[in-house]
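Researcher: For the record, we're logging two predictions in this thread. I'll number them. Prediction 1 follows.
Model: Prediction 1, sequence and structure:
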Amino acid sequence: MTGLDPSSSLYAEPPLPPVDPSTLTVDVLADTGRRIALRAIDMGLTRWFWGEGVVLLGMLRLAEATGSPTPPFVIEFVERRLASGIMPDHVNSIIPGAACAWLYRETGDPRYADACSGLLDWLSSRIGPGPLEHWPGGVWADTAFMAGVFLVHCGRALDRPELIAEAARQWLLHAEVLGSETGLFAHGSHRGETIWCFWGRANAWLALAGVEILEADPSLDHIRERLTAQLTALVSLQPAHGVWDVLVDGHPETRGIIETSATAGIAAALFRAAALGVSAETFRSSAWRALAGLHPYVTSDGSVTRTSAGTVLQLVPFGYSVIRDDRVQPWGQGLGLHAYAAALVTRTCR
């Protein structure tokens, strides 16, 4: 291990004590989710981009879990962008379209379907035989969520099963590039070479995309097998306090540097995989440990703290030890919403 720099790890703040999972009642989960949503609204989100897309979908999932009407913020956000025009310029600009697909399923308003079709045209022009690239020469786990989840929602809303099949194909293509023998996924590849840094949020993106696809088509056994292997590996590496490190494999340069957005996303995936009957008891138990560890990091105003900033692919593990995590981030709020929504569904269905 010559040449490693564990300085950031050595000075990492100790984790907060987790709460007792039994205290996470339906009322507590719903109240926390609402506070997270209100804090996201207070951020003044206006861009048609990935963080906003994760928030929109998280708000819709929370509303569904609580039996609440469609959040006005989601409708107003989408309406403003429909009025000004949606012009994607990167694959990260696709995921907010999942909210359009959701709204189309709820309302039948053809404007939402038209928005989905425009985004599909842009995306289709970039899809080839291989995995979608995040940047030229680079395949990132993020894309399996940003494009894949959009495809799933459009497939369901527009009654186009071929879109769900394409999401599944992309997921498996990404798994081939980024998957390891351990079951974990790397963040990405650079110039055709996979960089074996097992970033937490990358694993959250792929896990959440995997459950979205399986919920749409439970017959996809190849995805079920690889998703099971990934989540099993994550469960085996989960710290006692419940919150995974920024790199989930315990690398000495990032050990003890926790990351809440990854934990939220992984927890949501575990809850939803368990609901599909995938290692239900083990995955559900791990998900509650994760949420119990995450809960103390949600402040009274709904901020999900200790969320790492937007993170480009790092070529060495040390790079992940110095990403700032001292500001509220839309993807932290959004993945928090996914986690509390999935926990609520679990509580109310048992």
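Researcher: Logged. Prediction 2.
Model: Prediction 2, sequence and structure:
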Amino acid sequence: MIFAAILAGGIGSRMGGTDTPKQFLTLGDKPVIIHTIEKFVINSKFDKIIVLSPQNFINHTNNLIDEYLGENDRIVVIEGGKTRNDTLLNSINYINENFDIDDDSIIVTHDSVRPFLTHRIIEDNIEAAKKFGACDTVIPATDTIVESIDGEVIENIPVRDNFYQGQTPQSFKINKLSELINSLSEEETNILTDACKIFVLKGEDVYLVKGDITNIKITYPYDLKLANTILKENES
């Protein structure tokens, strides 16, 4: 079985000037989160599309889905967690409580504020997760990477060719992901907020999937302006 987990639990504190979480801001003629959900709805491979929302926005999210996408029994909105790991566990727990999965069942996890995800990236994630068990969507680093421990002095300038910028989706075999999250110590749980880093820490390989430069994450006000520009170009 194949599941999508759309991570929409954040409150968007870096967006500034608004109390509305960034995933609910308008992009073009509809909310950012709807653009994102649509990318999964049109792919028939997903048995369930799980949207993880702040508790006080669950009803709002359901209302938006009904308004823009209509009734769809493949979509469910549940509460996210306090941290990214907690949110992932909530999605896994929902799957385990409602479906009979096996060791080959896949979860494709994606940021709700990356609305320009492509069909190709989704398909590549599914295939890589099936074959390798874990994958991360990345693009090559284009800027020089500078490392500083204290934020004042350069410690190292590594070879750029070896570095990539992480995007999402990140996709995994569900049982393996659950096993590794549950194996984290309290200290590890507090510092590891990225599922792929959990795999790496535990000595598990994570396969690279080619991302796209337009697969941006809307975090700051400028990002929303850029997203509107990309949307207009795509529509034209």
